[in-house]
């Protein structure tokens, strides 16, 4: 899809980009609060991440349109300076925290999974020990019975 810059309303595209950036910042801050709280609701997290990805795709589409503008246009210059640049820095800071929180959640989840797997492995080993004891038990019971009754087998 080739973008025709003559058909693009640059101020509207810039405003749309700003709105998308603001929505992304709000959503990432919500997700970060969710992660900081230690919430384990994976469905809600998946929903937040899904909405974040939709907004990110919209953001990249708007950036493509603005990048197609002439380099000396006011809209292109405003991407590198002023309010747009400040909002993009805010977004970057929030996304960096988001990455850190997601990595911490992944690490904690991995540790929990490892602990469960270790417990299951230990239980399997104990089951093996118990089954060996159970196999040996009838002989012991038989011996005990013969001692009590005075009979021999």
What does this molecule look like?
This is FlgN protein. It comes from Aestuariispira insulae. The protein has 153 residues and is mainly α. The protein is built from four helices and no strands. The protein has a single domain, classed as Methane Monooxygenase Hydroxylase, Chain G, domain 1 (Up-down Bundle), CATH 1.20.58. Helix 1 packs antiparallel against helix 2 and helix 1 runs parallel beside helix 4. The longest helix has 68 residues. The radius of gyration is 32 Å and the shape is rod-shaped.
Topology:
Blueprint: H1 10-36, H2 42-67, H3 74-80, H4 82-149
Helix pairs in contact: 1-2, 1-4
Residue share in helix? over 70%
Averaging pLDDT over every residue, what do you get? 79
Using only C-alpha atoms, the radius of gyration works out to 32 Å
| Count of individual domains | 1
CATH topology: Methane Monooxygenase Hydroxylase, Chain G, domain 1
Distance between the termini: 91 Å
What is the H/E string? Answer: HHHH
Globally, the shape reads rod-shaped
Q: Multimeric state of these chains?
A: single chain
Number of helices: 4
CATH class (first level) name: Mainly Alpha
Largest sheet: none
The proportion of residues in beta strands is under 5%
- Stretches where pLDDT is under 50 for at least 5 consecutive residues are 1-7
Structural class: mainly alpha
Specify the CATH architecture: Up-down Bundle
DSSP, total strands: 0
Organism: Aestuariispira insulae
Protein name: FlgN protein
